[in-house]
Amino acid sequence: MDRAQKTELVAELRQTFAEVGVVVVTRNLGMTVAQSTKLRNAMRDAGATYKVSKNKLAKIALDGTDYLSLGDMLTGPVGLASSIDPVAAAKVAVDFAKTNDKFEIVGGAMGATVLDVDGVKALATMPSLDELRAKILGLLVAPATKLATITQAPAAQLARVLMAYADKDAEQAEVDA
After folding, report:
1. 107: phi > 0 → left, psi -120 to 50 → alpha, else beta; which?
2. Which of 26, 30, 78, 97 has a CA that sits 20 to 30 A from residue 48's CA?
3. Are 26 and 104 in contact (CB under 8 A)?
4. Could you read off the pLDDT of 118-131 as tens digits, one per residue?
5. Residue 109, beta-bridge partner list
């Protein structure tokens, strides 16, 4: 890797650190290509990314960002899982670590807040932004739905009564004829 490629990689990592809501530091203990591909696909599906970079370049990229505290965790073969949604990367990393013994979580950070392994696991149990939005939308829509149901109920009951009278009159007309 020449100097230009290193500079480009540092700039890309620095931009990532500026945009994301969470960074999870993981340790790769000899995963196969298939396992790594499975992890990357799971991250992509959740709206997160997983990158492996040289620790020295990652530490340079951390300078001037809220994630400067992650520098101490960057030892050995590590990967960085990140996402704008503070829960997505943590959730995928924790789920993948449960099924793969060659992948472990070292820690992470949400901006300047450092997370240990238990903090990342706790973050993974929280609902994602999309789930929270759906719950809020459901709470907002529920009263309107109930109101519409209540206002339609008398009209529906009146229609059923009128239909019953019409059916009764039709039966009476058939009996008279």
Report:
1. left
2. 30
3. yes
4. 988 988 888 777 77
5. 23, 114
On whether the CB atoms of residues 115 and 123 are closer than 8 A, the answer is yes
On whether the CB atoms of residues 120 and 107 are closer than 8 A, the answer is yes
pLDDT tens digits, 53-79: 888 988 898 888 888 888 888 888 889
CB atoms closer than 10 angstroms to residue 103: 20
How many Å apart are CA 133 and CA 172, to the nearest integer? Answer: 57
CA distance 97 to 35: 11
Tokens of 148: 């519409």
How buried is residue 84: exposed, middle or buried, by Cβ count under 10 Å (0-12/13-18/19+)?
middle
- Rounded CA gap, 77 and 27, in Å? 6
User: ∠ CA(93), CA(114), CA(98), 5° rounding?
Assistant: 20
